[in-house]
Amino acid sequence: MGVIRQKLRTRNWVYKVLPLGMLVVVILLSLSIGAVTITLDRFNFALHQLLTLPQAEWGYETVIIWQLRFPRTLLAAAVGAALATAGAVLQGLLHNGMADSHVLGVSSGASLGASIAMLLGLRIGFLGLGAITPMAFIGSIVTLVIVISISRRIAGKSTLGLLLAGIAMSSFLSSLVSLIVYFSGERIQPLVFWLMGGFSARNWNHFLAVIPYLAGGYFITYIYHRYLTAISLSDATAHNLGVNVEKVRLILLCCSALLTAASVAVSGGIGFVGLMIPHIGKIFVGHNYRLLLPTSALFGAIFLVVADLLARTIIRPAELPVGIITALCGGPFFLYLLAKRRKEIL
Amino acid sequence: MVSLRISNISFSFDKPVLCGVSTVFNGGSFSGILGPNGAGKSTLVKIISRWYRPENGDVLVGDKSLRAMTQKEIARNIAVVEQDQSFGADISVAEMVSLGRLPHQSLRGEESDEDRLQVHRAMERTGMLEFAGRRLSTLSGGEKQRVRIATALAQDTSILILDEPTSHLDIKHQSDLLNLLHTLAHDGLTVVAVLHDINLAALFCDRLIILLAGEILTEGTPEEVITSQSITAAYGCNVEVIEHPKEKVPQIALLRR
């Protein structure tokens, strides 16, 4: 395994070209496959229509590709990239390979914030999603601060303390979300639909509403990649290299909370992407965040586009929530990490 | 050459750790800090690096107080190699040493030719050039220590502080490192190292300080500091002070009780 890792890392093209190529391929697959399968020549024809004809004259395949599958696929790619980036950031900042928005309860905090926004009907604002993302952001950042404070106070920097605090917080917040669902009366249907997670019936409005948050969160995170690498080595190392550790940590925690919140606001709770993908990225490019952030984002995008594709094709024409697919992969991966790190946890 | 002035530093956790410590580390000298476990040596290093804020007193680089400097400015003036820093991430040696240039780079700035030159020189001086592409996880304890020192050298500061830099090294690498620090000091760097090996400290350092229970017990040249009385007072063990047969510096020989 070590030799393979070394070879992968020394071949630059592997992590620069291959993931980009893979992303293009899975996006094209996602555009063509679904309840209606669009063959290659029909796909080309639809693309031609898309580029040359006014919308009123499009055939049904062009409408399916542009209005249903394109925004959905791009949204899955953007959310996958965001969740993987958030996971990579949390693992570096907390010096803990088990950290992830879902495991730490940050996603549940975002769900609670978003549920309150939906319950109160706070849909005014940018493209109708205006209040949901900020409320999800507040929920996620508050949760993150509480989980980190509790675990550090009780168990220092131990992995077990962080995981237990995250799991406890996640259960508590999920029960609050269930309470909201219970009391939401006639508003229950959209809330439950959203809580199931996934990209079903997401359109360009959803994509355009969250992309500024996701792009902004990623951009700011990437600016700090060198500081993040230094902090991931150790706080003292970063401090001695002139990094204002507390300030940078706060900025990057806010960015990871924002990435999680915007993802949850638009696609509900999708777990384990942020846990798994950074580990796979590290196999390819090591722990330097200059490469790890874009690699994790690309792998996250590929993973979630594929997961969404599976979710809507396994039992077509019906759909599975995409969170089931990610959990089916992520659960065993989580256990594998636990087994691998048992010495440092116990 | 820039001096490092410690002025009346006091610091405590639950009980006092440092009590009114004052001294000057002159530019172009190699100073050693000695003392038993718990004397406050590592705390003093952490105060110089601004990891801890002293309750009283000040640390001055030349004439400028650390209080008036940002962390980045401090890192442009003082490089610190702390004791047993573990690496939480697995990056390559070259990537690690490049981080030494962080204090000289803006947030979005790219690596300059000067950065690359300093990184290359730092790896060359510590014998790490051949390890440039190796991952930290594949290095021995001694090699990791040399990477830490190369990173500190890449910072290109006027002051270098090291907390027990020889602790993971075999005798050959201890000798190489202390010779390097000696050379750096004589090239104009202010080098301060916390050392446990009194004989190595006497052999390589221009000036020594013995800390005991948060206070300076004695300071001066090795000849002034290494006496059987001071060593017995600091460490509570009996020693005979003898002269190094070639270098003519004091060395201690431990006596049985």
CATH level-4 homologous superfamily of chain B = P-loop containing nucleotide triphosphate hydrolases
From N to C, what is the helix and strand string of chain A? Answer: HHHHHHHHHHHHHHHHH
Separation, N- and C-terminal Cα atoms of chain A: 26 Å
Q: For the record, what is the CATH homologous superfamily label of chain A?
A: ABC transporter involved in vitamin B12 uptake, BtuC
- Biggest interface between protein chains, with counts per chain? A-B, 25 and 35 residues
Q: Class of chain B in CATH?
A: Alpha Beta
Mean pLDDT of chain A: 85
Tell me the Rg of chain B in angstroms. 18 Å
Quick check: average pLDDT of chain B? 93
What structural category do the secondary elements of chain B indicate? Answer: alpha/beta
Summary of the model, kept short:
Chain A has about 350 residues and is mainly alpha-helical. Chain A is about 75% helix and about 0% strand. Chain A is built from 17 helices and no strands.
Outline the fold blueprint.
The complex is a heterodimer of chains A (346) and B (257).
Chain A: H1 2-10, H2 12-16, H3 18-32, H4 40-52, H5 60-93, H6 106-119, H7 132-155, H8 159-182, H9 188-195, H10 204-223, H11 225-233, H12 235-240, H13 245-267, H14 273-285, H15 289-313, H16 322-340, H17 342-345
Helix pairs in contact in A: 3-5, 3-15, 4-5, 5-10, 5-11, 5-13, 5-14, 5-15, 6-7, 6-8, 6-13, 7-8, 7-13, 10-13, 14-15, 15-16
Chain B: E1 4-12, E2 16-25, E3 30-34, H1 41-48, E4 56-61, E5 64-65, H2 71-77, E6 78-81, H3 93-98, H4 113-125, H5 141-154, E7 159-163, H6 171-186, E8 190-194, H7 198-204, E9 207-212, E10 215-220, H8 222-225, H9 228-235, E11 239-243, E12 250-254
Parallel strand pairs in B: 3-8, 3-9, 6-7, 7-8
Antiparallel strand pairs in B: 1-2, 1-4, 4-5, 9-10, 11-12
Helix pairs in contact in B: 4-5
